[in-house]
Amino acid sequence: MRALLMLENGMTFEGVGFGDEHDVLCEIVFNSAMCGYTELLTDPSYAGQAVVMTYPLIGNYGICYEDAESDKPWLGAFIVHSVSNVASNFRCDIDLDSYLKNYHIAGMQGVDTRALTRCLRESGTMRGMICYGDAIDTLEMSRRIKSFVLRSYVPTVSSWESKTYGDGPRKVALLDYGVKHNIIRSLVERGCTVKSFPYNTSFDAIKEWNPDGIMLSNGPGDPKECTQQITEIKRMYASDYPIFAICLGHQLMALANGADTYKLKYGHRGINHPVKDLAQNRVYITSQNHGYVVDANTVDPKIASVSHISMNDGSVEGLVYKTGRAFSVQFHPEACGGPLDTRFLFDRFIDVMGGARL
Question: Which three-class secondary structure string do you get for 280-315?
């Protein structure tokens, strides 16, 4: 069917539907990766967002379930220039169009994604709506976009019961704000028993399991909406447990320790973002997916210091806390964008749990 995307600034983009063709309201963001769309679709941090792919051809190697970062896709809609009609890959389990249909994810192709991405870069991330059909009421679309309020998706993407992975000697309590499978795999590979806890688990409940360390996962949305989690993280930090935080977890750790966060104009979403390690004077290629960052000017030097910065815009990409028992990064070390540049951060976490200090 004919598909129409309208942004909150009134701009419209025409295309053709694929996947599950149903009207959807979303925050519209773009991703600059040339591949990795299976991982992107199943990344819980994209919940409630329509993702625009800047690379023109998507779907040529189909979907491989083994590459999924969660049990299902979470994004609201998928917007591309062209969908490949052929899924050519010996690992392919299902083609992209059928996969989106199975999970009721709206798709839109035939879009001038270069023009759309330029609009998002110049005006910033915006709310938008996709409608399907020949008779589309643009006035009604505009009204619905203006009344659309972004909400927190952490309660939606978090598991509602604890799960245990691995059987190694190190016990890691993982706070699930929308965790990616590869974070769990990276810890299990290093001899950890990982127990995931729902996003609203109290610190008292975590202490009962007697972990060696705590992992704060990635997740979607504005970190300031997670008020209960910030309070609990403050207690975790004060207890001097080893803590490793990634993406949303990194932002929540900073908020729990008095720093502030703000929304980027159009966010960092891609698999080739250069990040500088200030201590090592090295640059890593990283995978990123976030719209908010920690404000460097609000980080108390008595509590933490900036360990990593973005080479694109200078924003904070990592913090090391003065206790020597906690650190965090904004990027995804488990995603191996380099391809293995930053996996050593998991080894560092293992060392800290063994009594070493940063």
Answer: CCEEEEEEEEEEEEECHHHCCCCCEEEEEEECCCCC
Categorise residue 47: left if φ over 0, alpha if ψ from -120 to 50, beta otherwise.
beta
Find the CATH number of the domain harbouring 73. 3.50.30.20
Are 207 and 134 contained in the same domain? no
Choose the catalytic residue: 250, 268, 308, 332.
332
CB proximity list for 129: less than 8 A, separation 6 or greater: 5, 6, 23, 24, 25, 26, 141, 144, 145, 148
The single-letter code of the amino acid at 328 is: S
C-alpha to C-alpha distance for 198 and 169, rounded to whole angstroms: 23
Cβ proximity of 44 and 220 under 8 Å:
yes
Residue 18 to residues 2, 48, 68, 117, 330, Cα–Cα distance (Å) = 10, 18, 21, 20, 33
pLDDT digits (tens, 9 = 90+) for 214-250: 999 999 999 999 999 999 999 999 999 999 999 999 9
User: Which residue type sits at 300?
Assistant: D
- Which is the catalytic residue, given 247, 250, 290, 317? 247
Active site residue 161: no
334 is catalytic: yes
Share of the chain above pLDDT 90, in %: 96
Asked whether the beta carbons of 4 and 13 are under 8 A apart, the reply is yes
Judging by DSSP bridges, how do beta strands 77-79 and 82-83 pair with one another?
Answer: unpaired
Q: Total structural domains in the chain? A: 2
Where does a domain end: 102, 128, 147? 147
CA distance 9 to 6: 8
CA atoms 103, 104, 106, 107: torsion sign? positive
Report the CATH number that the domain containing residue 205 is assigned in CATH.
Answer: 3.40.50.880
Write down which residue in 93, 120, 147 finishes a domain: 147
Has 247 been annotated as catalytic? yes
Annotated active-site residue in 21, 27, 39, 334: 334
Stated pTM of the model: 0.96
Domain that holds residue 60: 2-147
